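Reopening: structure tokens for the adenosine-5'-triphosphate complex, inputs below.
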Amino acid sequence: MPDKVQRVKGVNDILPVEARQWQVLEAVIQKVMNRYAYGEIRPPIFEKTELFARGVGEDTDIVSKEMYSFSDLGGSSLTLRPELTAGVVRSYIQNNLQQISPVQKLWYEGPMFRQERPQKGRYRQFWQFGAEAIGSPNPEQDVEMIALFYAILKELGITDSVTLKINSVGDTESRTAYRSALQDYLKPHLSELSETSQARFESNPLRILDSKAPQDKELVKDAPKIRECLNEASANHYDQVLSMLKDLKIPYTQDDLLVRGLDYYTHTIFEFTSDALGAQDAICGGGRYNDLVKELGGNDVPAIGWASGIERLLLVVEAIKPMNTDPVLDLYLVVLGDELRIKAPQLVRDWRDQGLSCDADALRRSMKAQMREANRQGARFVAILGEDEFSQGVVQLKNFESGEQETVAFDQVAKTVLNSLSERSEES
Ligand code: ATP
Ligand code: MG
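Re-run output (same inputs, fresh job):
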């Protein structure tokens, strides 16, 4: 026997039962994005490696060790996208989207690829949906961004088990000032820091704040806070964000150690975490990136965005407010006698055309087996077709729930079922 081919480590098959949860979530995402007037964008799954090196930052975990890069036949280095902000910004610049309107509000959904150690909530192919608002420098845009994700949590009924952590890294001037303050504080303890943090002391000292190493955590506790180094404009921006969040009744926790992994952030940064998850507890991360468009060759245009991991979000939904994913089918056609089997395709096609979700047996099984299959598929009705019924152009239509049965002409079946289902949904 030939060997079975196994799937690649760290990736998932999303099977139909689980896909029903995805569809519910995707419907929520689309609805909320429409309400907030964000337009969907679908950039390619791979880009030139250079885009991520420049757009995400050479120093980040993503670029330094997690990317799936390869050369194509022409010898170009390409990379499966590890995130989509860089791709959206590239697309914004290349397609001159600023000419359409000075603020572009965009959202996306799709698979991302990172070569990380697989574990619960951390995969090598995982899905993100996200939003980017490119064009406005103002705090109300930051607040809308956060409100947008919060609205999705609300629709899913899980706001109570999610925490919004927020911080500001300020503008370039504030960050430079803080960088020195932090280095001054850490310098005498340099040798006590973890190896990774020692390496980051020069290149990216802010990242030391979110180090998981116990000795780093201990030192960082008493480090100066970014908030205290913000210049007036940055402090104002941040204060206004917090005050509008209060107006919107969106609870938040200020987290002085939140820096987020990426190089491009300015001003507001935030993360949504959930205690329903284990170690991988972040369900959404984002922030303002005022310099990225310019750094990728566009105009000097400010922007802000976030991205959320779908698998992790669904783990929270599953733990807190599981969705009903029982199968439902409007009608199952049960055919008695093999000669009638060839009549089934046309009948179900017509009923499907008239709007019913409808199925029939293709294995020529017994009546009992067909009834069992109807039940398994969650059929609300079964239509039973025998020789007598066929000669009269009718079926025995049976309501699976009430057990009631009536004789109905072929062309009245869809209408009868739809009427009954809509009455039932009005009652409940
Ligand atoms: P983490 O701290 O978990 O590594 P991150 O800071 O690398 O997250 P981002 O790059 O901000 O994550 O991506 C946004 C969201 O995408 C995360 O909050 C998380 O929900 C999800 N995510 C990131 N990496 C993975 C992964 N390997 N598998 C599944 N989901 C992921
Ligand atoms: Mg990560």
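Residues 16-35 form the longest helix (20 residues). The two ends are 54 Å apart (CA to CA). Marking as resolved unless the reporter disagrees.
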